[in-house]
Write a structure and sequence with these properties.
Length: 257
């Protein structure tokens, strides 16, 4: 029963054997391709993981410097700097756009930052206030760039994680379920076909032996009838007439057998 559960319920014929062999070839090729895909995704996954670790390590320093730059700007230009900056800003100078990158058939989202137009350098402020505001802006632009890169890496990381798990499940299914079942089915069909061939050979031998016995019985009956006719016509004994006819019928027997 364990062997039966590991094979398909099919009719053991030559046509079905050819179909199962073709399916096994397809499953083998698919397993090889999925294995290569899994390896390629795993390599990309590890590279992205290294980039995420490096980006997170640098993000702490950048966020610290940007917060300190904001404190300096507030100290120099005053606490009401927020309203002054908002009045001078017409549109966002840093924007984010997305695109897709194909890695071994998996589409990974990528986020990129870009700038449109130029920002005025003379925002407002007395003494060093304008310079401090520009320094604060530059620090936060760097922080935004790091955050956008980190968001792109983490999104790609999660997408690759799901794709790798799905691919590995398919590889394991082909390797542990589909291919063994097809191989066991092929073995079963070959065994059944060999058994049918042996049965046909045995059947043919039996038929030949039966036909041979029938022919021998007919020849024996014909010789006996001929001996009786010769004996009745010539008056010779049945034994003598049998010896005379045996030589005549020997050629016929050689031709038949």
């Amino acid at each position: 029963m364990a062997g039966q559960s590991q094979r398909m319920n099919v009719v053991p014929t030559v046509t079905v054997l050819a179909v199962i062999k073709a399916r096994l070839i397809g499953a083998t090729r698919g397993h090889a391709l999925l294995k290569k895909k899994s390896d390629a995704l795993t390599v990309q996954f590890r590279q992205i993981l290294k980039k995420i670790v490096a980006t997170k390590e640098s993000m702490g320093t950048i966020m610290k410097s940007s917060a300190f730059a904001l404190t300096e700007a507030k100290y120099v230009a005053g606490e009401n700097i927020k309203h002054v900056v908002l009045e001078n800003v017409q549109s966002a100078s840093v924007k984010v756009r997305s695109r897709q990158e194909n890695v071994a058939g998996v589409k990974l989202p990528r986020f990129e930052h870009f700038s449109e137009g130029e920002t005025k350098n003379d925002l407002t402020g007395l003494a060093r206030g304008g310079q401090q505001v520009q320094a604060c802006r530059g620090a936060y632009v760097k922080a935004i760039e790091v955050l956008v890169e980190l968001a792109s890496l983490q999104t790609s990381f999660l997408t690759l994680d799901v794709a790798i798990k799905t691919t590995n499940r398919r590889v394991n299914a082909l390797e542990s379920v589909v291919k063994p079942k097809l191989e066991n089915t092929i073995t079963y069909i070959k065994g059944e076909l060999d058994e049918l061939e042996r049965e046909d050979f045995f059947r043919l031998k039996k038929i030949q032996a039966y036909k041979k016995r029938e022919i021998e019985n007919k020849l024996k009956a014909a010789r006996q009838l001929a001996n009786e006719q010769v004996s009745s016509q010539t008056g010779i004994s049945t034994k003598s007439s049998s010896n005379m006819l045996s030589a005549a019928t020997q050629k016929d027997e050689d031709i038949i057998f």
